Amino acid sequence: MIPRHQTVLFVILLLASVIMGAVLWNQLRRAHERLLRGQDAAPTQAPLVAPAEQATLMVANDADNSIDSRILTLPLPENPEARARAVLGKLLDLYAAPDATHPVPGGASSVAQVFLVPIADDTGKASPTAPHLAVVNLTSAFAAGHPSGLQAETLTVLSICATLNANMPSVTQVRFLVDGQSRATLAGHADLTRTYPAVETAPQP
């Protein structure tokens, strides 16, 4: 025979559990509804806008097989890798424009990522002031759409290298990837397996 006080306590605990379960289920349902409606209790923050700065773009010209500097004012992030990507994106936007001196489709979205890697000295250590290797990760769509030909491909590669060095002098070497993978050539000619000196601004004879 169960004592009366234990029976009363059991009933009270059971009712409390049912009530707490109902409250919890209701809160979960309301949270789910807010999620579906896209409502957020936190205040919406405006996206950060990078300050405008001068950037030097080394722009290729197919007419005379040259690379010339062009200074533009661009919004440039503080993060070095994001800054490098923004500068190269503008360079490729120029190449995708109807009046481009070096027509290449794709534009800024063709630069997936830029990584900056400190170059170690002879002792195997990289100091804070060490030069950097820039690894430029292009998209496969850019490589597939790039005009094939030694001159056209070389001008693209060298103008990217020179643009990086003009805006980030610590970048002294450049490597290229396509969709994060090594690739033999850009579009059948320009070698993407080698490391390019960033200061090289003209095709070699």
User: What's the structural domain tally?
Assistant: 1
Using only C-alpha atoms, the radius of gyration works out to: 29 Å
Order of helices and strands: HEEHEEHHEE
Helix and strand composition category: alpha+beta
Overall, the morphology is elongated
Ends distance: 104 Å
Strand order of the largest sheet: 3-4-5-6
Helix content: 25-40%
Total count of strands = 6
What oligomeric state do the depicted chains represent?
single chain
Count the DSSP helices: 4
Query: Which percent range describes the beta-strand content?
Result: 15-25%
**Rounded mean pLDDT score:** 85
Low-pLDDT residue intervals, each spanning 5 or more residues: 39-44
Task: Throw out a few tags for this protein.
elongated, alpha+beta
Report what the structure shows.
With 205 residues, the protein is of the alpha+beta class. It has one domain (52-197). 37% of the residues lie in helices and 22% in strands. It is built from four helices and six strands. It has helices at 4-37, 80-96, 140-145, 150-167; strands at 52-61, 66-75, 111-118, 132-138, 171-178, 196-197. A four-stranded mixed sheet has the order 3-4-5-6. Strand 1 and strand 2 (66-75) form a beta hairpin. The longest helix is centred in the N-terminal third of the chain and has 34 residues, at 4-37. Mean pLDDT is 85; it is low at 39-44.
Task: Provide a short characterization of the protein structure.
With 205 residues, the chain is of the alpha+beta class. It has helices spanning 4-37, 80-96, 140-145, 150-167; strands at residues 52-61, 66-75, 111-118, 132-138, 171-178, 196-197.
